[in-house]
Amino acid sequence: MSDESPSDVRLKLRNLTLEDYPQLARLMETIYPDIGGAWPATSIKRLIQEFPEGQVVIEDSGHLIAAALTIQCNYDRFSRQHTYDDLIGRREQMKHDPEGDALYGMDLFVDPEYRDLRLGRRLYDARKEICRNLNMRAILAGGRITNYHKYADDISPTDYIAAVDRKDIHDPILSFQLANDFEVKRLLKDYNPQDEKSQGYATLLEWNNILYEPDWDDLSQHRKSVVRVGILQWQMRLSKSFEDWLSHVEYFVDTFADYQADFVLFPEFFNAPLMGLGDQGNQFEAIRFLSTFAERTIESLSEFAITYNINIIAGSIPVTEGELLLNRAYLCRRDGTVDYQDKLHITPHERRDWVIDGGDKLKVFETDAGRIGILICYDVEFPELSRLLARQGMDILFVPFWTDTKNGFLRVQRCAQARAIENECYVAIGGSVGNLPQVHNVDIQYAESAVYSPSDIMFPHDAVITESTPNTEMALVADLDLDKLAQLRHEGSVTNAKDQRLDLYEVKWMGKS
To answer: Per the database record, which ranges form the CN hydrolase domain (predicted)?
Structure first.
């Protein structure tokens, strides 16, 4: 290799075969002279027979130059203290467990002449792909700390591991494993007494498969990986009666149900046309007249959710509680349960003309299609709320809004896009369009409803899943892949949640739970 240029190299990643054993043995003898050299041919033969997909090699023009040997194991057993001998049976046979829920990395090695080509990373990536494809819980490995013998008289093995993690000390194996997303879970004592360089110690390393799905016996415990959301860019129109208005709502619920959507989002104040049925002379009284329809509205929407098998987010409607008037979004689940989120930050217009009060509770909602949050319009402009929801595992943030002008809409839009990036979640926004000349303070609307994603390679290049034509009644439907969020949070180009400096700052909820 040292006399060849990169253009002379012809690499091929493939599974190990019995015919490879002579080359494999020579390579292992070269790399492991201090801990026994090569595995016996019978051990390799049995490993290939029992778990062929787990044995991976890289060749250069037919010459074997790197390999990774892997078995299945029981996670609960080998995520605890164990030794190398616990993995080896009689006659040096690796104990492969075909019922195991995790992979165990037995060996991974590269020809010294090829170590400048990062072939170890290729093998780790291949092992991770096997873990995902077989729906294994994790990859475990007992890692050597081969430079520890140089420091053993001065520092403990735990201090040595910490120094390697800080990059104060370089260890050819541990440093590489940490760079490949493995975490040190514990120190293994007397792991392999034959390993004098490591003084018998090893690190228990773990890489978690964030896409792992347990085999649930209870169907209700199964998590959807792809969620379909529907957003209605709602046309405000004159309503002759409550029943007339409700018929339009049901039409769109039925439509989204035909597209097998898991959610349908209506805008903020989407029942505002009903104000036209009352006296418009006093706006304080008009909005309270609208609140008298709340109970009938939620009873009807809850029935629709069950009948059409869809979760309905009733954007917001005014609700009275005692002397207070609240702007409240309801979640009507298709299992018949109902929950709600009040608007917390009240705009000057709502406070001045309608005398609306802000709520005092914030929560993430459990649904059969992921954990969701709801922030009504102005609330999305306060990043602390989304951060608190993200800490509770929110996957999708729904933002029903009502804006009259484009600059008002842009405030909501820009903040919603920021919330998707900051909190590694999807954000769906839905607004209303059209005019209501007969209703004071709801004269004009401007909306461009959309679904936004985080900004990373696995999402659209502009971080926009879908968006509507401005100021036109439209129905948007989008599929949101929750597994991509899990991948982003664990191994994205940036990992916002993991990288927060909580030693320097914090966001703390002081209201009701």
So the answer is: 227-482
pTM reported for the whole predicted model = 0.74
Closest CA to 14 of 106, 155, 118, 123: 123
Going by C-alpha positions, the residue among 148, 243, 153 that lies closest to residue 203 is: 148
CA atoms within 13 A on the CB side of 63: 12
Q: Which of 162, 143, 141 has its CA nearest to residue 151?
A: 162
List C-alpha distances in Å: 22 to 1, 19, 42.
20, 7, 12
Q: Give the integer Cα–Cα distance in Å for 48 and 94.
A: 11
**Pairing relationship of beta strands 426-430 and 450-452 according to DSSP bridges:** antiparallel
Please choose, from the candidates 268, 386, 384, 371, the residue with its C-alpha nearest in 3D space to the C-alpha of residue 328.
268
pLDDT tens digits, 101-154? 999 999 999 999 998 888 999 999 999 999 999 999 999 999 999 999 999 999
Distance of CA 242 to the CA centre of its chain: 41
Which residue type does 166 have? R
Enumerate the H helices of 86-239 as residue ranges. Answer: 119-133, 157-165, 174-179
Active site residue 377: yes
343 is catalytic: yes
Q: Residues for the chain: how many in total? A: 513
The active-site residue, picked from 131, 332, 377, 415, is 377
Q: Can you say whether residue 156 is alpha, beta or left, with left for phi > 0 and alpha for psi between -120 and 50 degrees?
A: beta
CB atoms within 10 A of CB 2: 6
Whether 73 is catalytic: no
Angle of CA points 462, 252, 304, to nearest 5°? 120
The active-site residue out of 206, 343, 415, 484 is 343
Q: How far apart are CA 380 and CA 417, in angstroms?
A: 10
Catalytic residue among 206, 268, 350, 467: 268
What's the CA gap between 473 and 441, in Å, rounded?
Answer: 20
The pLDDT assigned to 219 comes to 47
Rounded to the nearest 5°, which phi and psi values hold at 329? -100, 130
Mean pLDDT of 252-263: 95
Cβ neighbours of residue 27 under 8 Å, at least 6 residues apart? 64, 65, 67, 109, 111
> What is the gyration radius of the CA atoms in the chain, in angstroms?
30
- Whole-angstrom Cα distance, residue 229 to residue 376? 17
* Amino acid residing at 74: N
